[in-house]
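A quick aside before the break. I want you to see a complete sequence-to-structure record at least once, exactly as it would be stored in a machine-readable document. Don't worry about memorizing anything.
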Amino acid sequence: MEFVDESDTHLPAVDVAKMNDRRAYRVPSDAVESLPAHILSELEEKEYVRIRGEYSSDRKEFSNVSLGWEASNKNAWDLMMEELDRRDVVNPVLDYLVFEHGSDRWTPETIAEARGVQPETVRNNIQNIRTTKDQDSSEQS
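That is the input. The structure line, written in tokens, reads:
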């Protein structure tokens, strides 16, 4: 088990392990033994574990330890798109972009038909993005 530089903690464990120039520091076996049973079990099962907690180098032990976060196979783009989708901004932005920058055949009605929503939803999305853009423009002036 190794400590890794905090700047690498956003990476999947496999990517960290593959880095040639990574800074990693071996965790003393006494410290590993101080981990709670559920974390040791996870470490044994997966052969790696990401944890958050406190470490005392004097006592060589961990305290207040919990699993830090779930490793994800998703790349940054996928995670960003999920977050945008959770905030419900992807569809409005896409409606606006297709309407404003697509060919003339893309009306609110044709966009709505392609998306399986009501034309009024598309019109509202376009108007909301225009309003946001106008507000951003006036704030920058």
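Two observations worth writing down. Residues 119-140 form the longest helix (22 residues). The radius of gyration is 24 Å. We'll return to this after the break.
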